[in-house]
Amino acid sequence: MNPLFGHDPFWVVLLKSVLIFIVLVVYTLFNIWFERRVVAKMQHRIGPNVHGPFGLLQSLADGVKLAFKEDLVVKAADKVVYVLAPILATIPAFLAWAVIPFGPEVTIPFTDQKTMLQLTDLPVAVLYILAVTSIGVYGIVLAGWSSGSIYALLGGLRSSAQMISYEVAMGLSLVSVFMYAGSMSTSEIVSAQHSMWYFVPLFPSFVIYVIAMIGETNRAPFDLPEAEGELVGGFHTEYSSLKFALFFLAEYVNMVTVSALATTMFLGGWRAPFGISHVWEGANEGYWPLLWFFGKTLFFIFIFVWLRGTLPRMRYDQFMSFGWKILIPVALAWIVAVAFIRKLKSEDMLGGPTLLIVAGVAGVLVLLTFLIPEKKEPEPEPEPDEVDAFAGGYPVPPITEPPTRNAR
């Protein structure tokens, strides 16, 4: 790891922490506006356009509205857990950003202090992110349980099963990245992608991760814990005002978190897109990498919005079956294939072009498995029930076909 990590003065650590918090809150407000505008374009509507230029202040207006709403606490709720649940769901979403790299080493303006555009780093930084983000499910489960409502409880149970299932697939999709980079440090994984981004040789892992991150963040078409047609509003049915806003904030910050992790693992992190660094030598220096980093995260946010505006919600049994019977087995098989390829390459039995061809063929085979239809045996037709004309004490004649007249 870079020797600058762990040696920053206290004021630098505090400054970076405050800036990360501010950036995430502002980015959340922007993402809400961005989602509304993109979905409006897809549905041939106008979208927010009144508050501020292009409606950019609409999200801020919604936040102020939520703050001034009446804060209700239902009588059947467990008061302490009811209040702590939204806090427990929100804080881990921010903590995960402690090890996300925004850029290279820079000099703080108006000072001579050099620091990394990253709060800190760990030898197991990716495992830290997975561990911290998994704590957020406790806030959702406790919110459903403490509300004293059966609909909220069912939403919390759904969310816990969903996040645990798809977190397994997400973790397995990152194993191949660890094999290629030889490290779990986020900064070292970004450095290892200086010549090729990992989504090219590890495309199946990239696809598995994208599917898993949508399932883990409870976004459409996997927003089953909040299925209003089945559960009214899901785990936050009994919440209002700022406590409801905290759940809203946690959802959008988690979207940015998984998008930033996907950028770091598969799209080269803060490095400039292909071709720009060859033409412009300073593309990966100074504060310019912030532009590339947030541009890549916005690409994944667009995928979230695009899927919400185009795909219907899945059935819960289909969703869980897809995660356990397809996604996880495919991820395990891909890990074995990557380990085999890495072994052949270490023994000089597999060249670079051959490696790409093998990885491409394996990726196509993995994608084809999703297209193979499942064979289902035809169900026998149920036999019609006999009509009891005297059921209930009222004799009712059975329905018969009307008599036909003879043609004259």
TrEMBL record:
Name of the encoding gene: nuoH
Lineage of the species this protein comes from: Bacteria, Bacillati, Actinomycetota, Actinomycetes, Propionibacteriales
Protein name: NADH-quinone oxidoreductase subunit H
Family assignment from sequence similarity: Belongs to the complex I subunit 1 family.
Transmembrane segments: 12-34, 80-102, 122-143, 164-183, 195-214, 244-267, 287-307, 319-341, 353-372
GO molecular function: NADH dehydrogenase activity; oxidoreductase activity, acting on NAD(P)H, quinone or similar compound as acceptor; quinone binding
Keywords: Cell membrane, Membrane, NAD, Oxidoreductase, Quinone, Translocase, Transmembrane, Transmembrane helix, Ubiquinone
A single GO cellular-component term on record: plasma membrane
Subunit structure and binding partners: NDH-1 is composed of 14 different subunits. Subunits NuoA, H, J, K, L, M, N constitute the membrane sector of the complex.
Pfam families xref list: NADHdh
Topology of the protein relative to the lipid bilayer: Multi-pass membrane protein
E.C. no: 7.1.1.-
Reactions performed catalytically: a quinone + NADH + 5 H(+)(in) = a quinol + NAD(+) + 4 H(+)(out)
Cited function: NDH-1 shuttles electrons from NADH, via FMN and iron-sulfur (Fe-S) centers, to quinones in the respiratory chain. The immediate electron acceptor for the enzyme in this species is believed to be ubiquinone. Couples the redox reaction to proton translocation (for every two electrons transferred, four hydrogen ions are translocated across the cytoplasmic membrane), and thus conserves the redox energy in a proton gradient. This subunit may bind ubiquinone.
Region annotation Disordered: where it falls in the sequence: 376-408
InterPro entries (UniProt xref): NADH_UbQ_OxRdtase_su1/FPO (IPR001694), NADH_UbQ_OxRdtase_su1_CS (IPR018086)
Coiled coil: none
Keyword Membrane in annotation: yes
Source organism superkingdom: Bacteria
Location(s) in or outside the cell: Cell membrane; Membrane
